Amino acid sequence: MAAPGSRPSKPNHERVEESTLALITAAIQLFGEKGYHQTTAAEIGSRAGFSRNMVRDRYGTKEELLRSLFEAEFGRRLLPAARRERRGRGLDRVLGVLDDLTTSVEAEPELIRAMIALTFETPVALRGFAPWFEELIEVYQSELRDHLRAGQYDGSVREDMDADREAEQFVSYAIGLCFRSVLYREKYDFAGALRAWRDRAIKDYSASTGTSPATGGG
Known about the structure:
Layout: H1 12-34, H2 41-47, H3 54-59, H4 62-82, H5 90-107, H6 109-119, H7 130-154, H8 163-184, H9 190-205
Helix pairs in contact: 1-2, 1-6, 5-7, 5-9, 7-8
């Protein structure tokens, strides 16, 4: 029985959930600041407010914590928000991709930064996670191609555009902006760059100057 005036202890499952969230949050912060290779499991435990062995006790290895981060945070929390179902004309769907990415950058800056930082470690330190990023790129590129082709069909996108080539360039440009965002960090206005890109996309993709694409998400 709890002593008078003391707070009742939390159920074990609540303590586990809170400690897991603290570890994931600490990992996101440190991976975004230092990258995966330069971050130790002990640092994650300490940043989360626990012992230096907490990551090992909870996950076994730093890599398993990272795998949980990919599945829970990137896979179920971030990506669905950045890849909603697209409706409307083809051009509106393309612009919706940029709108949702901008929203994610503003709403989840630390999570976005960690994901981007980890992306650029994939070719060497995180080679085992390369298939995850490769699939993500392929899916985005395929969806963009389909949006552009839909726009050519419905008259909102220029007919003379090579949808396959443009989708590839679109994704490559996005990767370039992502690199700048982690290179320059707080000095770089990532959301502002995305909005400027959106304005250019309207001019470059529109079938006519009279096209009035939606101002919000697709």
